[in-house]
Amino acid sequence: MARTLSEPMEKWLAYLQTNQRYASHTLSAYRRDLVLLLNFYPDIAAEALSNAQIRHAIARLHAQDYGPRSLARILSAWRGFYQWWIPQTDAKINPTVDVKTPKIPRSLPKALSVEQTQALLDHPTVVTSREPADLRDQAMFEVLYGSGLRLAELVSLDIRYTRKDGYESVSWLDLGEGEVSVTGKGGKTRSVPLGRSAITALTQWLAVRHKLLPAASSVEDQAAVFLGARGRRIAHRVVQLQLKKLSMRSGVPAQVHPHVLRHSFASHVLQSAQDLRAVQEMLGHANISTTQIYTRLDFQHLAEVYDKAHPRAKLDDPEEKK
């Protein structure tokens, strides 16, 4: 039976929500991770757990077929709580110190080719439509690809910085400057340029946005760039479903989700500019090692070009000599 969280844990989650602006789905995941820990030791307060007990909990989760990524996320939640809580107590030891999880394989992120991206974003059913929902979708996907935003960052975008009636923007547009200011992971705010196509698509969408906005709306919905059918800030799931529909119509041979457009943005910028630091800054990666995985995508692209173009790149094919 699941236990309720301790008071310090509830305070930590409240701190992340209020001070660090963590997304609601991230907070929900952290809550589940903390409950997991409590369920392992129903007779011991989480604040009294030892390093050996944390290690044992991770080992038990591993035995239950939790994968490396899931274990890493769970341990990250536990570690985050203790790092916040320990300095406020007389405890001298953080029980999560030196606890490790199985190594996560560094697989290549999925990215579309430039041609596939153009086929997706230039599909006639979207480009020629004047329906508000289609103009909204075109603007969303152009911004995802043109600025490399995360899905949560896209959904949180406001038309302009707004601070009113207890609501305050975390991300917003500045069409005059051709950029967006977004608050990403860890509450870090960065500015990212908007491409010309994204600015055009946004301008067309904002001209008809009022058709989806009810007269009586909350301050948050009035501020939101992208609205759903009922006039509220668009939901993550709606963006995912609309992009999936477009990818099927355009015949792109891949499962296209919002993060694929982010990966494609990073890969294509690197192919053209070869500036890893600039891509790191635009993606909002805290560590450049996270961005470096895209150099493998870039090399993969170059290798394919080499194989097709260089006269001595291919091994002789015995069938061709028959």
Automatic annotation (TrEMBL):
InterPro entries: CB (IPR044068), DNA_brk_join_enz (IPR011010), Integrase-like_cat_sf (IPR013762), Integrase_catalytic (IPR002104), Integrase_recombinase_N (IPR010998), Integrase_SAM-like_N (IPR004107), Recomb_XerC (IPR011931), Tyrosine_recombinase_XerC/XerD (IPR023009)
Residues of the Core-binding (CB) domain: 3-86
Quaternary structure (record): Forms a cyclic heterotetrameric complex composed of two molecules of XerC and two molecules of XerD.
Protein's cellular compartments: Cytoplasm
GO molecular function: DNA binding; tyrosine-based site-specific recombinase activity
GO biological process: cell division; chromosome segregation; DNA transposition
GO cellular-component term (any): cytoplasm
Role: Site-specific tyrosine recombinase, which acts by catalyzing the cutting and rejoining of the recombining DNA molecules. The XerC-XerD complex is essential to convert dimers of the bacterial chromosome into monomers to permit their segregation at cell division. It also contributes to the segregational stability of plasmids.
Tagged with keyword DNA-binding: yes
Main location class: cytoplasm
Entries under PROSITE patterns matching the protein: CB (PS51900), TYR_RECOMBINASE (PS51898)
Active site: R150, K185, H259, R262, H285, Y294 (o-(3'-phospho-dna)-tyrosine intermediate)
Encoding gene, per UniProt annotation: xerC
Span of domain Tyr recombinase: 107-307
NCBIfam families registered for this protein in UniProt: recomb_XerC (TIGR02224)
Listed PANTHER family: PHAGE INTEGRASE-RELATED, TYROSINE RECOMBINASE XERC
Matching CDD domains: INT_XerDC_C (cd00798)
Protein's recorded name: Tyrosine recombinase XerC
Alphabetical keyword list: Cell cycle, Cell division, Chromosome partition, Cytoplasm, DNA integration, DNA recombination, DNA-binding
Family under the similarity heading: Belongs to the 'phage' integrase family. XerC subfamily.
Family annotation (HAMAP family): Recomb_XerC_XerD (MF_01808)
